[in-house]
Amino acid sequence: MKKIRIAIAGYGNLGRGVESAVHHAEDMELVGVFTRRNPASLHTQTGVPAYKMEDVPSMAEGIDVMILCGGSANDLPTQTPELAQYCNVLDSFDTHAKIPEHFANVDKAAKEAGHLALISVGWDPGLFSLNRCYGQAVLPQGADYTFWGKGVSQGHSDAIRRIPGVADARQYTIPVDAALEQVRAGEAPVLTTRQKHTRECFVVAEDGADTAAIENAIKTMPNYFDEYDTTVHFISQEELDRDHKGIPHGGVVFRTGVTGLEGENRHVIEYKLTLDSNPEFTSSVLTAYARAAYRLHEEGQTGCKTVLDIAPAYLHPKSGEELRASLL
Amino acid sequence: MKKIRIAIAGYGNLGRGVESAVHHAEDMELVGVFTRRNPASLHTQTGVPAYKMEDVPSMAEGIDVMILCGGSANDLPTQTPELAQYCNVLDSFDTHAKIPEHFANVDKAAKEAGHLALISVGWDPGLFSLNRCYGQAVLPQGADYTFWGKGVSQGHSDAIRRIPGVADARQYTIPVDAALEQVRAGEAPVLTTRQKHTRECFVVAEDGADTAAIENAIKTMPNYFDEYDTTVHFISQEELDRDHKGIPHGGVVFRTGVTGLEGENRHVIEYKLTLDSNPEFTSSVLTAYARAAYRLHEEGQTGCKTVLDIAPAYLHPKSGEELRASLL
Question: Residue A143 pLDDT > 80, yes or no?
Answer without folding.
Answer: yes
